[in-house]
Every structure is written in C-alpha cells, then in structure tokens.
Specification:
mainly alpha, hpI Integrase, Chain A
C-alpha cells in the first residue's frame, strides 16, 4: 500500500527499489548506486515474469517469503547463473528487503538454508605468453570495440587496475608528461576510498596507451566529436562511458570471436604475480594494488599459490601417466 494515499502501488517492487536507492545515494558513489539500480531493475523483470506466471503471489517486497525466494533461486538456476552471480543478486535483493523491514533472506541464512557463498576461488593468473597469444588473435579483428578490448587487456595486465577503474577512467586522469594516472573511481569509493590514489604507467605499457590515444582521437573525430572534450578515457562507440554490462558484453563478444579464454578480472592478479616474480616486496605490491592492508595481499597471493599447486599436481600426474603408458608399451 502507498504510505500517503492508501491505494495499492501500481508497481510495488519498482517503487520500493527507487526509495531504497534514494536512501543509500548519499553514502555511496554515483556509479555504485547506478549499478545497484541496474541489478534491481533486472530483478524487477524477473519478479514480473514469475508473478505473471503465478509462481509468486506478490510483487511487493514487503510480502516476499521463503517460497518467493525459492522461486527466484529456481529461476537463477534454470537460466544457468553462476553461484557467485546468484549470490550477488540475492545480496542486492536483501538490501531492498531490509529497507522495507522484511527479514526473509536474513532468516533463511540464519537457519542455514541459504548458503550460496562458494568461498574464495583459486586465482589462475595469465602470463606474458597468454598476452602475446591474445594480441595475436585480436590482430585481425577490426572496429572500435576490438580496439578497446585490445587496449584493455594490455592496460589491465600492465597496471593492475580493476575492471571498473579503467572503464570509468577520465581522459583528464592520465598525465602523459609524467605518466601518472589518477584512479578517480576506485573500489570502495564513498566508503573507505577517496578517489585520490595514483598509479604509474610504466615504460613497458606506455606504447599501448599512446597507440590507443591515437586511435581514440581518430574514432571520436569520425563521430564529429572533439577528443579533448570527451570525458571517458575509454569511450564506447558513441563516445560515452561504457556501462558495466556493456563493458562485459564487449569483452565477451570480442574474446569469443578471437577464441580467447579468460576475462578482465584475472589480469589484475597477473600483474601482482609478475611483481612477485620480479622480487618486489609484499608491502610495495600491497600499495601498488591499493589494498587496505598487507593481509589482503597475502590472501590474494595465497589464492594464486593454491591454483599453482593444483596446476603443478595436474602436470605431474599427466607426466606420470604418460611415463607409465610408455613403460607398458
């Protein structure tokens, strides 16, 4: 029911979602609120679909119960959503439910009936050979999106930026005289991060940046735009910022065309592992990754080392199997 007129809300999910976003907006970055809004709109469409099919009794978040949550989880599973993706959306939904005073998800978790967290997953970094192979596969592809992806993989593996930090970087953040780059939209902006950190674009990565800036200028001029007046460092085909989903979709399409396995998120650990292999101390690596503490960096490395251990074990088992086959023959 509406709090002012007493009449039923036309779309209660959307109404309460908008109120929830307005409530958290002063305490979160603009991009965080936008991303949460996108996730809630997607949940709204799923709720509408389930309601239209009669699989849930109400679209009002105040009335969501265990059966409604179960119906949503079945929808996630039926559409092949990864466990981490389901957890992410469930957390967004729980924020909305808490806003309206509904403890359905919290109650299920307290009773141990809703544990979707897969825990820390092993990190399998990429190396220089992977980068060379990826660039070789991307070489035949034409178009602005391919240019963006070609630049992104070099920038990520060479700077340690997080996916969102490059996607939302401004042209003004990059100083090509000193090669310092401001991270204007870091992880945790509006909570523990202020957006004043800087990274150094080192000599080995600068050619990729210069080449991209040249191609960026030509692309924007072809659109009739002044390259210096376009704010995003990495604009989309229309000269605007990429959305989170647009950024992921561009990578997915180009990687699939080129036959490349992997995603952007694995390239930050690749940067960290490269630093470690060069003997850079963990305190320095922690500062370069802009972790809140060295403990975070240690956990980061531990996940990589776990993956390395499994890879080594798999290689040794394969070698032993081949040796046994050879001995038998």
């Amino acid at each position: 029911m509406s709090g002012t007129t007493g009449r039923p809300l036309k779309n209660p999910f959307r109404t309460f979602a908008e109120r929830h976003l307005a409530e958290i907006a002063p305490f979160r970055s603009v991009e965080t609120v936008r991303e949460k809004g996108r996730k809630l709109r997607q949940l709204e469409r799923i709720v509408d679909e389930l309601y239209a099919r009669g699989q849930i009794p109400s679209r009002n978040p105040k009335r969501f119960d265990a059966a409604t949550i179960a119906a949503l989880l079945k929808w996630f599973e039926a559409h092949g959503w990864a466990l981490t993706y389901r957890t992410q959306f469930l957390n967004h939904l729980n924020g909305l439910l808490r806003h309206v005073g509904n403890a359905a998800i919290d109650s299920l978790r307290q009773r141990g009936l809703l544990n979707l967290d897969p825990g820390p997953q092993p990190i399998v970094p990429k190396d220089e050979a992977w980068l060379r192979d990826a660039l070789h596969k991307l070489e035949p592809l034409e178009g602005w999106t391919a240019e963006v992806v070609r630049f992104a993989i070099q920038a990520y593996i060479g700077t340690g930026l997080r996916p969102k930090e490059l996607r939302l970087a401004k042209l003004a953040d990059l100083d090509t005289q000193t090669w310092w780059m401001r991270v204007s939209v870091p992880k945790g902006l509006g909570r523990w991060a202020s957006g004043g950190d800087r990274i150094l674009v080192t000599d080995d990565v600068r050619p990729a940046f210069l080449d991209f800036l040249d191609r960026r200028e030509r692309h924007l001029r072809s659109l009739g735009l002044d390259p210096n007046a376009v704010e995003p460092l990495v604009p989309n085909v229309d000269g605007r910022y990429y959305t989170g989903s647009g950024w992921s979709r561009a990578r997915y399409i180009i990687f699939r065309k080129a036959g490349i396995v992997g995603d952007y998120r694995i390239l930050r650990p690749s940067f960290a592992k490269d630093l470690k292999s060069m003997g850079v101390g963990i305190e320095s690596v922690s500062r370069m990754l802009r972790h809140t503490s060295v403990t975070t960096t240690e956990k980061f490395y531990a996940r990589m080392e776990a993956a390395d251990a499994w890879s080594e074990a798999a290689s040794r088992k394969a070698a032993r199997k081949n040796r046994l086959i050879t001995e038998k023959s």
